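Morning F.,

Quick status update on the modeling queue. The single chain you submitted on Monday has been processed. Sequence for confirmation:
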Amino acid sequence: MDLKEEDILGDAIDRHWYYRSKAAALRRAVSGLAPRRLLDIGAGSGFFSRHLLAATPAESALCVDIGYPADRDDQVAGKPVRFRRDTGPTDCDLVLMMDVLEHVDDDRSLVRHYAGKVPAGAHFLVTVPAFSFLWSGHDVFLEHKRRYRLPEIEAVLDSAGLEIVRGAYYFGLVFPLAAAVRLADRNTTEPRSSLKKHGAFANGLLATLCAAELPLFPINRLAGLSAFVLARKR
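Structure tokens below.
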């Protein structure tokens, strides 16, 4: 996940509509898998793996991020969370790459690198920002390299040796408003985040809107701000 966004939201991140809704979509995307050990790549604070540990029977998480100053261990709901700058081979059965691949020059190589560390049958849940026409100063601020359509990110994962299970867009109901704002600002690429803290009313309203979308989320291949892809190592 984006460390710069964590810095903006601070302790309020788990109350922000965007992250609350994305965590709910993550749970929906991996429902039925019953993962035991999580490998969270580019994890930052480990927000998403912490969420799964608290909300599902998952037993442990290994959070990997080159930004960590040192290795450390923690717990969530009595379950171990290890923070490491890198990892060797692991028996983790669910790999999270939440808004990571858009930051690297060679996205295929990064996926292939971590696919080589987990056993056959392990699942990957990947999210990336959607649609190049939404490129704005927000992407520049977050140091993105690109945005993706679903077929593009699916092709990346396939070429890295993964089998696509399913893909969908999320944040479809807020997509028209966000697209209008981004397009109105498309000639400005000054680095600036569009993520802001909101009051309880705005957070509740936007979270409710996104929750209403969840039943249709698995079949939405039309539009959204984020692309979610579930894949499996062959």
